Amino acid sequence: MEQEIVKVFNEQHEQIGTATRAEVHEKGLWHETFHCWLVNEDYIYFQIRSAQKKDYPGLLDITAAGHLLAVETVESGIREVKEELGLDVDVHEVVKMGMTSCSIVSENMIDNEFCHVFIYPFKHDWESFNLQYEEVSGVVRAKLDEAEAFFLGETATLNIEGYEYFPDGQRAKIVRPVSAAQFVPYRELYVAHVIQFVKDKML
């Protein structure tokens, strides 16, 4: 996976070449990712990153996301929803929110991303998930209004509910409050902007 080839961009989102995933994170090169948020009129959904992940193991994250390879179009990123969550989603079923930039510097890497953000109106239930366990260990949701307040910094905790899934087909219910420390550190207000878009354009 670290040797997959991705497009490399300058800060104006003009392509300047290609590099491996390992290189872009090591050198802080700008590259493209695909984000797909599952939402409905009441909830926004988050994945729990697998404990096996090198980066941010066990933290809450975008419902489905991944790097766009050099040979892929932006729309090709819809494959991430099938790969990570086991959901068959057609690109015509998602709503394009737009592109945002995100820069996260951690001990392991410098992650400079142009993120293509899509919203999927989720009308299924918990049974429909078939997770890729090396990537995702669970799915949870939070009420839209509560999540908006949390990501705007108005509340210190957010109530989540959902399931941790196990390779043998079992699952364990999760109901608990979480703090910002339990989330991958997105750019400030990113998730709040996603929720505002959903409320303005989709509900």
UniProtKB/TrEMBL annotation:
Pfam families according to UniProt: NUDIX (PF00293)
Stretches assigned to the Nudix hydrolase domain: 29-168
Top-rank taxon: Bacteria
CDD domains the record matches: NUDIX_Hydrolase
InterPro entries: NUDIX_hydrolase-like_dom_sf (IPR015797), NUDIX_hydrolase_dom (IPR000086)
Name of protein: NUDIX domain-containing protein
